[in-house]
Amino acid sequence: MKSIGFNIRAGEWLRLVLSWRLLWPGWLPLRQLQPLAVWVSPAALLLVWYWAARQQWVPEQILPAPAAVWESFLDLINSGELQDNLSISLFRLLVGFGIGAVSGLLVGVLLAISPGVRAYLGLTFEMLRHIPTLVLIPMLILLLGIGETFKIVILVKAVFFPVAQAATDAVRNIPRGFIEVGRVYQLKPWDFYRTILLPATVPPVLTGMRIALGRAWLILVAVELLAADAGIGQMMEFARQMLRLDIVLVGVVLTGVIGFSLDKSLRLVERRLMRWRPE
């Protein structure tokens, strides 16, 4: 069939229609607005949420409107309930992550540099590393109850193995030339660790810590949903029992925001510590 009108193929028409530059004003540089692109998807999600609640596609008791969730958020702040639960959760996370990260770093380095430690602990380490953390919850509840010790142990397990594995891989992957330089200069053990081992292992270890921190936060909220008397997860579970889905959504959004903030914070620390690395 012969085309009518402009002699332009269908693919070219589609390219022209989808081109932003045809509709974008020349006086407004597109590159300057690129930092705002990260907010497009959250704004679109919020708009869909608002429209779905307004049209009542889902009953109001199940999907409250964004305005109702915002009002509940302000009420929780004014009553102090949100701050109390959040401080408890973050304290648990800080303690569990600290213990797990330090112990994982030490064990990971020992597994990498000591054949004896690797011979005695290597197999057990690999087997325990592949056991999902949440699977241990019923057994740990029976052994430790639902107190703070139970939650800290769960967090330590969630953090310990990723950090230990990252440290082990980092030490094993140190370039052989670095080690030879240390031997040529006859560096003392402390100087070897400070000038060769530490700089070579910091980047992968920080990546492992960042992954472990995100995993620990998610597991903490899940544990608080199941067995806790305080915390963000417990606040969400109590609200669910009271059919307060607006408070549940406050907890859901807050969980995502905190997890995102923790990840970005560790990324910032990683960039600052890596300034010494050559390009």
Automatic annotation (TrEMBL):
Q: Say where the protein is mainly found.
A: membrane
Subcellular localization, as worded in the UniProt entry: Cell membrane
State the membrane topology. Answer: Multi-pass membrane protein
One GO BP on record is:
transmembrane transport
Q: Which domain of life is it from?
A: Bacteria
Domain ABC transmembrane type-1 residues, every copy: 86-266
Report the transmembrane regions from the record: 90-113, 133-156, 216-236, 242-262
Q: Which CDD domains match?
A: TM_PBP2
InterPro entries listed in its UniProt record: MetI-like, MetI-like_sf
Q: Cross-referenced Pfam families, in alphabetical order?
A: BPD_transp_1 (PF00528)
Q: Which UniProt keywords apply?
A: Cell membrane, Membrane, Transmembrane, Transmembrane helix, Transport
Assigned GO CC terms: plasma membrane
Q: Which family does it belong to?
A: Belongs to the binding-protein-dependent transport system permease family.
Q: What is this protein called?
A: ABC transporter permease
